[in-house]
Amino acid sequence: MNTKSLVKKANNKSSLSRDKGALIFDRVFGIIKETVIKDKVFIVENFGKFVVEHREMQKEIDYKTKSEILVPPKDKIKFVPLFLLRKR
Q1: Which of 27, 37, 46, 49 is the most buried (most CB within 10 A)?
Q2: pLDDT tens-place string over residues 41-82
Q3: Structural domain containing residue 75
Q4: Count of structural domains within the chain
C-alpha cells in the first residue's frame, strides 16, 4: 500500500476531501520524520516505534570489478512493530 491508496481508504471512511486527507497525512508523516531525526525515536502507542539505527562502516565486494569497497557509516530509520503485530 502506498500513500495515495492509504489517503483514499481513509477518505472513504470519513467526510474529508481528498486534498485535506492528503494534507493531514503529509503533516503527520512530516512530524514523525522530524521527531525521529531530533529525538532518535518515535513511539506510536499500540502500533510500534520508529528508531534511528547507526550502521558502522562496512566492507563489501563490488562483484562487477571484483574489488573491495568501503560503505561509509550512516544512520537508518527502522520500524519495530508491536509484539502483537509481528508475524509468527
Answers
A1: 49
A2: 999 888 899 999 999 999 999 999 989 999 999 999 899 988
A3: 45-83
A4: 2
Per-residue pLDDT band for 12 (boundaries 50, 70, 90) equals confident
Closest CA to 35 of 23, 24, 51: 51
| 59 within a domain of the structure (yes/no) | yes
Check: pTM over 0.70? Answer yes or no: no
Record the cell numbers describing residue 41, joined without a space. Answer: 525515536
Query: Which residues share a beta bridge with 50?
Result: 42, 79
Domain membership flag for residue 19: yes
Calpha distance 30→28 (Å, rounded): 5
Q: What would the pLDDT profile of 23-38 be if each residue is shown by its tens digit?
A: 888 999 899 989 998 9
